Amino acid sequence: MKNRDKTRAMPFPFYAVPVFLLALAGFFDSVYLSFSHFRVYTDLSYKSFCAISKAINCDTVSQSPYSIFLGVPVPVWGVLGYLFAIFLIIFAWKDFKHQRRGWSAFLLVASLFSTYSVILALISNYLIHSYCIMCIASYAVNLGLLTYAIIIKRRFLPGPFLKGLADDLKFFLFSWKRAVTLGMFGVAAAAMILWFPPYWHMNYDSLDTSLPHGMTEDGHPWIGAASPELTIVEYTDYMCFQCRKMHVYLRKLVEAYPEKIRLVHKHFPMDNKVNPIVKEPFHVGAAKLARIAVYAAAKGKFWETNDFLFSIPKKDINIKTIARAVGLEPAALAWALKSREVGAVLNRDILDGLKLGIAATPSYEINGQVYTGIIPPDVIRKVIKG
Which of 26, 205, 243, 326 has its CA 20 to 30 A from that of 183? Predict the structure, then answer.
């Protein structure tokens, strides 16, 4: 047959409605990720629903320095970005019958979203080594937005892309309503870069190392009460994010109740080089940091060294930087990394933890009871109220 049925293009709303719904889904996804990011750093007991394993863990991605861009959490940028996309869709849809403007600009935005998604996916794979389910959902949303934007451009807005983009710019700038709305997004972005509160920065500089401190009879550093009502024995790892959060909390707690609470430190690095329960590379370098802290304790500089080791990025362990910050000799710290004497102290701490059945950090021993992750508030409250 010579006459074939011609495929008719679906009407414009058939494509525009999914675009709007996808942008809306991306917005709510970013809102969730923003709240999750905030709670990861500020809520001691928080654990997201997608913290499933080492490979699939939204919290691990949030804890990464790559979750911050230009001083603002990436999901917060997502909230602003999807709001901007929704703004483009609404104005472009409203004037579609008359001017058919805005969709070249939307195609550019969708392309940028998708490109950034690829970059984030590569970072998750090669640098963080963990994936976030909700982030992957946003990647899918961005790919969907790009696909629909290409279809709309081809079927309803033929012509050169750059000319369409120039016309879209005129479309948004030559209307005061559209121009003001566009300007508000620019102001919001600038304000976020300048004034967004850096809640992810844990304030180690404010920790007081002048409180009473010393060594227990069996040789472990302590700080706080000389005659405590409550003794907390912590087993921590300098590369453990939850340990960092609890470290600041417990030090502040001891500062608030220096006559009642004593904190005793023991090392439990989850490093397969020293910890027998870790069967594969994990927290590589944690044992080295623990060795440095053991040596610092012998020189009477444990708590300032302890604070510093929790505060530094763990990508590169620079002996000279650590030595300069805590007032120790670089050569001495290099010796501590290989010393059998230092290694024996570290192994004793690990063995103490294993005897208690500890298999994760942070863990806390209080009156013979072991708590992992956090200390129940009731345990602390009894002493504080007493």
Answer: 26
Can you give the pTM of this predicted structure?
0.84
Number of independent structural domains in the chain: 2
Cis peptide before 362 (omega within 30 of 0): yes
Q: Do 222 and 347 fall into the same domain?
A: yes
302 and 225 fall within a common domain: yes
- For residues 165 and 251, membership in a common domain is answered with no
Residue 306 · residue 294 · CB < 8 Å: no
Residues 176, 242 within the same domain: no
Per DSSP, the chain holds a count of helices (H) and strands (E) of: 14, 8
Long-range contacts of 126-131 (CB under 8 A, 24+ apart): 127/64, 127/66, 128/60, 128/61, 128/64, 128/66, 129/54, 129/55, 130/54, 130/55, 130/56, 130/57, 130/60, 130/61, 131/55, 131/56, 131/57, 131/61
Tell me the pLDDT tens digit for each residue of 128-142: 989 999 999 999 999
- How does pLDDT run across 19-36, given as a tens digit for each residue? 999 999 999 999 999 999
Pair (139, 94) in one structural domain? yes
- 49 Cβ contact list (under 8 Å, min separation 6): none
